[in-house]
Amino acid sequence: MKRLNNIAKWIQKNKLAVFIILCAIFLRLWRVGEFAMFLADQGRDAIIIKRIVTLQHLPLIGPPSSIGQVYLGPFFYYLMAPFLLLFAFNPAGLAYGVSFISIVGLVLGYFIIRKILDKKIALIFLILTSFSSQLLWLARFSWNPNLLPIFSFFTLYFFYKSLKTEKYYYSIAYGAFFALSFQLHHLAAFLAVPIGIVTAIFLFRENKKTKQLLSVLIAFIAFLCVTSPLILFDLKHDFLNTKNLVSLFTKQDMIAGGSPAERLIQTNHAFWMVILQIKLPAFASIVASILFVGGFLFLFIKGKVHLLALIHMINLVSFIYFFSLLSNPRHPHYYGSIYLSFFVVCALLLGFIPKKIYSTIALSILLAVYLVFNMKDYYFITGPANNQILHAQRVSSTLLPYIDRKPFNFATYPIEFTSEEAYLYFLEKQGLKAANREAREVTQQMYVLCNQEPCNVLDSHSWNIDMFGEAKIDTMWEIEGIKVYRLIHK
Hints:
mainly alpha; four-stranded mixed beta sheet
C-alpha cells in the first residue's frame, strides 16, 4: 500500500511526464497491426521465429547483411519468439514486441537521465524521443535494426556505470549489451570508439589501472559469451562469416572513395534531415552542427557536462565521422546507434537555457516546431491502413485448396517483387512448406505471384521460375491486386 501511495504521489508531482509517456505509448501501439510492415524480411523472420517457438530449428545465426552476406547473430529471433507465441503466431505480435521494448526502453531512459543529469533535461529528452517520427517508425514494425537505439543507449549507460562504480557486473552488462547491439546491426561496432576513448582517458588519469583493465577484460569476455552462437557457426562452417566480413572490406569497395570532407558533409546532412524530418540544404546542416558542437563545448568548458553526456557526444561525433568513411547508402536505420545519443545531448543543450520568461517561451516554441515537423508523419492515427499482414494472409489462404497438401514450388514476379516470405509464412503456418530452392527441389506444381503487368511468368528470365522447367499455366486467379498462377509441367 505504501508503494502504491508513493507511485500516486509521484504521478501527482509529475503530471506532464506521465502525460508524455502516455502519448509515447499511444503513438507506438495505436493500430500497429494495421500498419506494421510485413514484407520479405519480416516474413523471413516470422518463419524462423515460428520454427524456434515450435522447436523445429534453433539457429546460431541471424539475418544476413544487405551487402556481403555477413550474418548477424540470432539474438533478435530469440528476443521476439515469446511475442509470436503470445499472439498465437499472428506476426503482428512481433511488431507489438518491438513497440513494447521501445516503450520500456524510453521510459527507463527518462528515469536514467532524470537521476544522473537533471529533471528538466530528462523531460526534454522524453519529449524529443516520444514524438520523434523516426523513432516511431522504427518502433512500429519488426526488424532487427529497429531496437538498436535502445540497446545502444543501454550499452553506453552500463559502460558509464562501470566507470563510476567500478563494479564488475556493470562491465558484464555493457559487454553483453554491446554484443547484443552488434547482433542487431553491424554498424553498432562503432560503439567501440566512445568506449575505447573514454576508457583510455580513465586509464591515463586514474591510478587504478589494474582495476580498469580488469573491467575491460570482463566486458570483452561477456561480449564473446553473448556472441558465442556466431562463433560456433563460424567454427562449424570454416569461418564463413569471418571470410565474408574480410571480403567485404577488401574486395567490395566498402571504403568510400572521393573527398573525405564531401563524404562527411553528406553523412552529416543525411542525419540532420532524418532526425529533424525536414529537408535542409547541406549548408544549413553544417551550421546546425557547428552550433550543436559549439554549444556542447561551451558547456564543457564551463564544467557543466556530465560524463554520461560526454560519452554520448563522443558516440555521436565519432559515428558520423567513421560512417562517412564507408560507401554504404545513408539509410535512416543506419544511424540507429546514435539517435538517443543525439537526443541526450540536445536535451542537455536545451536544458541549460536560462530560466527566464522569454527563454522559456523560446524553448516552448522550439519544441512546438519540432512536434509540428514530426506530426506530419503520424499517418497511422487517422490514415487508411495498409494491412500488409492481412493482405499476405488473404492471398495465401486462396492457395490452400489448390496446393492440396502436396509438395509445391513458389516464386514471385517480377524480380523486384521480393515479398514471397510474407506469403510463405502463412502457408507454413498451415503446415505447407515450399520446396527448397537452394537444393533445387522441383515438384509437380508451382505457384507464382505477380503484382505488376505484364505477367510473363512463362518467359520471365527469373531463375526462381525457370528452375521449375518447361511449364504451362494450369489456372490463374486474382486477389487484392495480385495475380496467382498455378504452373504445371508440360
